[in-house]
Design goal:
- InterPro entries: YkvP/CgeB_Glyco_trans-like.
- Helices cover 41% and strands 14% of the residues.
- The chain is α/β, with parallel strands linked by helices.
- It folds into 3 domains: 159 residues, 3-Layer(aba) Sandwich (Rossmann fold), CATH 3.40.50; 160 residues, Rossmann fold, CATH 3.40.50; 50 residues, no CATH class.
- The strands form 2 sheets. Strands 8-7-6-9-10-11 form a 6-stranded parallel beta sheet, with helices on both faces.
- The two termini are 17 Å apart.
Length: 407
């Protein structure tokens, strides 16, 4: 093989799982996979250097998530390298898929390789990058690419049919994802004086009241409302403090949705850490499994009739929970985004609810659970769309297309 793609393992488990899924398609296209172990960064860097030096004639690429491997890691960043890093010395193109809001990663952008291209999973994130970091190179098509999904029974080696029928699914409602109490995020603003703390808490309240807004727009609007003049650069400097706002709002609504469902009498099976800390009137209706792997989440989705999604604050993107649900036969019940509304039809292949009326979601779920024919119809329609458009295979094909354009 004359093409090598460097992928990363040993970091965040979900991102490693995504990388493993992508590796299958890279290999189909003739790429040799080189795995860099982030846990053993120093040793892995030496091995990578040796591997690269052994055959520089190969066409090397790197693909990573959330700056793994390009954030100053030991052995990859050193003054002994020309340009200060392995990436700059070798000129290997590095594609970085940022799966959170870019405000989390300001400190890593100065360390990015010279031959760097950023991928965003939300069009608002692209707008943010163009405004505050215009010098950062985006992948082709502005680097917009949503997350993909994984079909557990893709090879039909688990079941002869694509997924279990509704009547054979023993879990009514599932939620896959962690929970953290909102007060845990106070540490992000604890170093600020009381006026600044109140400003950020006010933003949380504003977004709860207006969940259609995005974090940076809410901050800018509130500053203007207070008569504060600022430049884009000054606004950029406060953006990392909005981690507090983003996380607080995200987990506030995650808690609200699951608590409202449980309090309405719906039993919700949660797969993720922290749900034993959720306070609600009927905690007996929340069946907690604790922290589980990506593979275990897929296993459980495959046994579920309905998979509830609460979007991270991606108003022009999507989350892999949506596609994982659809590819494994569970009906996805989710709040909306511009991307989801453009690609799916409420009641036909997805069920939408509004964060301003969460109780309506409970009513929809109760009704669906009494109508297995409707659940089957929606699940079948969703699968047909996702199997052709929303698997990691399609996302990887797009990345390969971009790689071929930019070498």
């Amino acid at each position: 093989m004359d093409k090598v793609v460097i992928l990363f393992k040993g970091g965040v488990e979900t991102q490693e799982y995504f990388s493993i899924e992508m590796s299958k398609t890279f290999q189909k296209h003739g790429y040799e996979i080189y795995w860099f172990d982030l846990v053993l960064s120093g040793l892995s860097a030496k091995q990578l250097c040796d591997f690269y030096k052994a055959d520089k004639s190969k066409k090397f690429m790197a693909f990573t998530f959330n700056f793994n491997g390009i954030a100053g890691e030991d052995g990859l960043y050193d003054e002994s390298f020309e340009g200060g890093s392995f990436w700059n010395e070798t000129k290997i193109p590095v594609y970085n898929m940022v799966v959170d809001h870019p405000l989390y990663y300001h400190k890593y952008l100065p360390l990015r390789p010279e031959n760097y291209m950023q991928i965003s999973i939300d069009k608002n994130h692209i707008r943010y990058m163009k405004r505050f970091f215009p010098g950062v190179q985006l992948a082709p098509d502005d680097g917009f690419l949503v997350l993909g999904g994984t079909e557990l029974n893709e090879k039909r080696d688990i079941l002869s049919d694509k997924f279990l029928p509704v009547d054979k699914r023993d879990i009514d409602v599932i939620f896959t994802g962690n929970y953290t109490p909102v007060n845990s995020f106070d540490r992000f603003i604890a170093h600020l004086d009381s006026d600044y703390q109140e400003f950020y808490r006010g933003l949380v309240r504003k977004l709860i009241e207006h969940p259609e807004m995005i974090v940076e727009d809410a901050a800018e609007e509130e500053l203007k409302n207070q008569g504060i003049q600022f430049t884009d650069d000054e606004l950029k400097q406060i953006m990392p403090n909005l981690m507090f706002v983003d996380l607080s709002v995200r987990f506030y609504f995650r808690a609200e949705v699951i608590a409202r469902l449980a309090d309405s009498g719906i039993k919700v099976h949660t797969f993720g850490a922290g749900w034993d800390m959720l306070e609600c009137r009927h905690p007996e209706n929340i069946i907690t499994a604790g922290n589980v792997s990506s593979q275990e989440c897929l296993d459980m989705i495959s046994r579920s009739k309905i998979s509830v999604n609460v979007m991270p604050w991606f108003k022009q993107g999507a989350h892999d929970r949506v596609f994982n649900s659809m590819l494994n036969g569970a009906v996805c019940v989710t709040d909306t985004s511009g991307y989801l509304k453009d690609n799916f039809i409420d009641g036909e292949n997805i069920i939408f609810y509004n964060l301003e009326n969460i109780d309506a979601a409970a009513d929809k779920i109760k009704r669906l659970l009494t109508n297995h024919d409707e659940l089957e119809h929606i699940a079948e329609n969703a699968y047909k769309i996702c199997v052709e458009n929303h698997k990691w295979e399609m996302r990887t094909n797009k990345v390969i297309e971009w790689m071929n354009l930019t070498v």
